[in-house]
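protien #1 (seq + structre)
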Amino acid sequence: MSLIGKAYHATKTMLKVSFTKLFHWNHFFCGSLPYFKVKVAITISSNSTIKLANRIKLMEGVRLGAINGGILEIDDRTSINVGSIIVAHDSIRIGKDCQIGPYCLIYDHDHKFETAEDLASQEFKTKPVSIGNNVWIGANCTILRGTVIGDHCVIAAGTVVKGVYEPNTIVYEKREIMTRKIGKTKEEKA
């Protein structure tokens, strides 16, 4: 990237951080040298907090949210790739030096479905999410409420994760690709 490009992104990042801090002065904290690409969205409700440490990198289309008293903390040098969404209603903590691939979803909540009411009126079930240091989360992963991922883990692309995973673990879903023919071939029709 050219020096002009770097200066442009640094200016846009500082404007985004400054405006977010202006409107959420005691609920948004950001360390030094952040890097935000365009279309990064940060949503913070009045009783929630987002804390970003030093050298955080948020790529295009990343959405961060802290809602209904939630706390979202992201530690030093963590990078979140294109289109990922992280929303805390309780607590989500992401450690240092993590790499989160494109289009990942991290939620510490899901809907309660115990009543017959419409979905919009449902409350949420919450449980904290903790992701250790130096964790690599591949593209299109989903991390669900109550998940604890230890340090130095790898979450394979496309994996849906819920549970506790020890440090130094590769987590993946074993899948089979099934095929079957559709219709009949010309020989079979005769």
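ok now protien #2
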Amino acid sequence: MHVLEKSIWENIRGGDLRAFELLFESSFKGLHNYATDLLKSSPDAEEIVQDVFFQVWEKRETIFIHTSVKAYLFRSVHNHYLNFIQHRKSTEKSVEFIHGEEGQSHASSLVNTEYALDQMIAADLEHEVETAINSLPQQCREVFYLSRFENLKIREVATRLNVSESTVKTQLYRALEKLRDLLKEHLKDHQN
């Protein structure tokens, strides 16, 4: 690992959000192009690359990189791609079963039951998201509301709250990270 890369990685492991943003900005395009070549789908590629970066940030204290950060990121994208393909195959098999001859009568009852369940989960999730937003620190909550519900750009939010654009980005990132963790837990609870 080069000295500069090692320094950036050590800062990230220490929780330096700016160093993480620099890594994201400098690596995203190459990783996205690589994932798009694998998947032949830009939106799926973007989702995979974002998942890799979220995982890197969440597990930064326990990740030890011996080669290079770039190699680690590309390997992570490849592993996420393999998981994505595996998940897609198992989903396709489930759909084939539901639409197959043996599943015809079962399929319609499944659809009705799943719709009712989806409605309950959606109401529960909406309540949890609202609670999570309200539990954010005041400035973080204000940034999130202005950005997501009033559709203001980062510069506009910074002007409205009289703070720097980097403060807005940091607060928005923290809000999204907390909500993402909540959604992960919520989905995990409903999959069990």
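The mean pLDDT is 77.
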